[in-house]
């Protein structure tokens, strides 16, 4: 099989070729490795490799729906025993820290037949919607190399879109599957809270706001992999209700005519680009042509307050992580990025009362969404407020850095987040990606579907949010949209 053929198929198709002995898993791995060497110097998507381990694994017999296909892990909470991991941070990279055990999600991916051969670029601790860690450098978007691939699963998105692998590991705590899916023209679904595992080191991440899954070119790859990985584990806080059938089988059926609400307005009052508006209007036309009813309305939720509650959790979790790494690995302030230290400083000053109030507010948002879904089947918004930003476009201005350093030295950086500056901080952090946090805080499943490319051939996804546990509804609709407006041919226009 030549690379030009390898690039034309999704993961299930490649696994079928292996099962029918048209190609071996070793040959596929070699093609994936050749593609990595060809394009990764331009993309900087794969930052840690484990080719020799993968080569040995490819020679063994595998089972599962994805038996023998090459795969990439995200360098964040997707640890592979005996392989270095950095979490996008110099604090681990400098130590050459090696994972002592498999993450449960990695074990399930291997049980599905996937053969990991590397880890992909991620921002430090996954705290940004772009992938530009100081530890590894910026990850470039294969549609336009001057642009970023998004975050925090940016390396995985870049690798899949560029044809290194058909499917790669990802995770989503504030949009980190859907944002890079939008920027890189991929399909990405964030499962419901508890649908996929976080063990063995954690029972859940960010109080259930974060989920693990994959980024793919095809809907069926995502559905099939969710079949192989979904379900509770021994340390799960609760057992989510099982789906009514296999997702891969359910997507063979078109959904009934759906009542879909939509909004294009930013919930935090920031600008939404013409591309994002055009993407949703085009999606609405497609939905209506398929028999769905679409009307403009939004949940009765204070978007700025929700953003504040998200930021409190996000920043506090960052503060905990920095302290954990200092305690466990002896990391010093110089081992972390300035932005990470500033975020951690803000988070460390949140009081217990603030944090508990914040979590109580989460329940109010869940209630609001439950009421909303009594009248609507799905909620549609842009996945991102614009196409991918250019590398370096989202960064702390040079003039602010000495101020931050001084405030950090005096333990006063948190003062920047007081009073009216809170809203400025939120808008500055979330203006590019104001739509995704709602699904994380409420634990709802949500997906980004690639249905739009602008005149510069940059993609922008349409986000759909569904009621809790209804990944089946999202996947059914996505498969219908994919059939009506196929996006796989678009990948032939990748620039690398």
Automatic annotation (TrEMBL):
Domain Amidase: 27-475
Transmembrane region(s): none
Organism: Acinetobacter defluvii
One Pfam family here: Amidase
Name listed for the protein in its UniProt record: Amidase
PANTHER family, per database record: GLUTAMYL-TRNA(GLN) AMIDOTRANSFERASE SUBUNIT A, MITOCHONDRIAL (PTHR11895:SF7), TRANSAMIDASE (PTHR11895)
UniProt similarity note: Belongs to the amidase family.
GO MF entries: catalytic activity
